[in-house]
Design brief:
Order of helices and strands: HHHHH
Number of helices: 5
Shape: globular
Distance between the termini: 16 Å
Radius of gyration: 15 Å
Strand content: under 5%
Number of strands: 0
Helix content: 40-55%
Largest sheet: none
């Protein structure tokens, strides 16, 4: 079991990871790492105190791609900017960082990610205090 104290806004970021990783079938990103034994709190530590497995230089490309994509989604959700350019922005960021563009990030899958992200956030906001929200991963 692993957990971390939630700060306002972090739940949306984590739900974004769920949307991205499940739609794109990423097995080596944040939730895949947790499923294989990484502790959530390790990602919150200062870089010099993190275990080697969660240092950016040691992360699988899926983890890095997922983080960039989730961050773009978060910016678009907060600013209400047009989300249609997310794949182009992601492609540019990935090129700058020598990372591959996910072949399955089609326009259709981007819409699935966005829809899942919005739906999950709505579910979370409507969750009564003291209740839990469970998500399945299929790992």
């Amino acid at each position: 079991m692993t957990w971390v104290k939630m700060y306002p806004g972090i739940e949306a970021h984590d739900l974004g990871h769920y949307a991205v990783e499940t739609v794109l079938h990423f097995k080596h990103a944040f939730y895949g790492m947790v499923a294989r034994g990484s502790n959530i709190e390790d990602f919150e530590l200062p870089r010099d105190k993190r275990p080697d497995a969660v240092l950016p230089k040691n992360l699988h490309h899926e983890a890095l791609i997922s983080e960039h994509l989730v961050n773009l989604i978060m910016v678009k959700a907060q600013t209400m900017e047009d989300r249609m350019d997310i794949p182009n922005q992601l492609r540019s960021i990935l090129n700058e960082n020598g990372l591959p563009f996910p072949e399955n990030l089609t326009e259709e899958n981007m819409e699935k990610i966005w829809s899942a992200f919005l739906g999950l956030n709505t579910q979370w906001k409507q969750l009564p205090i003291g209740e839990i929200m469970e998500l399945e991963f299929g790992y």
